[in-house]
Amino acid sequence: MSELAPLALLVEDEPQIRRFVRAALEEEGWHVHEAATVQRGLSDAGTRSPDLIILDLGLPDGDGIDFLNDIRKWSTVPVIVLSARTGEAHKIAALDAGADDYLTKPFSVGELQARVRATIRRQRQPGIDNAGQVRFGDVSVDLKDRRVSKGGASVHLTPTEYRLLAVMVASAGRVLTNPQLLRSVWGPSHAEDGHYLLIYMGHLRHKLEDDPAQPRYLLTETGVGYRLLTVAT
């Protein structure tokens, strides 16, 4: 293994899962360091500066959500959660706390590797160029002048539609939960008003997607939130 290989920190207390994940990551060229507790994981994250963290939620000395809340105070390292908890509430809690992705046990080697590649690709993707220009598909967003065009033609967005698009562009590739979007666009008092998102996401899709009924970029994560799939400059 090359000394220049990226480092993944695996925070997981089950030895069998650790062996499985280690083998999958090493196959993709990663160095892997293991930790079995929240406290050891946080310590290793601070001293080893990993390029990626794979995190189990159920740890012997605490919950993975506590780990996320702590590390997001000082690090933007990408975190993929692994968990046997399949409920939407658990996924939302992890994503709200700062996870970049959520993979439910059991999972395959191929799915884990694909999620890791996608997460790292999003981290490396600049998204916004020096002039504040963002593009996905044939849509161009000028963040500096607040202009949006599709296929070279200007697209009129209402202030609320533009705020929603700008929030998604800023976190392109990541799942944004419904409460996150509602708080960012409409304010804290509207965190439960999910119908706002249905309406305004529909508006954006009609204006920016080629086929609003089968969107390619403004995607729904069922029961959780939405994701802007790709942004390229």
Short structural summary:
It is found in: Cytoplasm. The protein has helices at 15-27, 38-48, 64-71, 88-97, 109-124, 159-170, 178-186, 194-208, and strands at residues 7-11, 31-35, 52-56, 58-59, 62-63, 79-83, 101-104, 133-136, 139-142, 147-150, 153-155, 176-177, 218-221, 225-228. It has 233 residues and is of the alpha/beta class.
Describe the structure.
The chain is an alpha/beta fold and 233 residues long. It has two domains: 7-124, Response regulator (Rossmann fold); 128-228, Winged helix-like DNA-binding domain superfamily/Winged helix DNA-binding domain (Arc Repressor Mutant, subunit A, Orthogonal Bundle), CATH 1.10.10. The protein is 40% helix and 23% strand. It has a five-stranded parallel beta sheet with strand order 2-1-3-6-7, sandwiched between helices. Strands 8-9-10-11 form a four-stranded antiparallel beta sheet, with no helix packed on it. The chain has a three-stranded antiparallel beta sheet with strand order 12-14-13. Helix 2 (38-48) runs parallel beside helix 3 (64-71) and helix 6 crosses helix 8 (194-208). It is elongated and about 55 Å long. The mean pLDDT is 86.
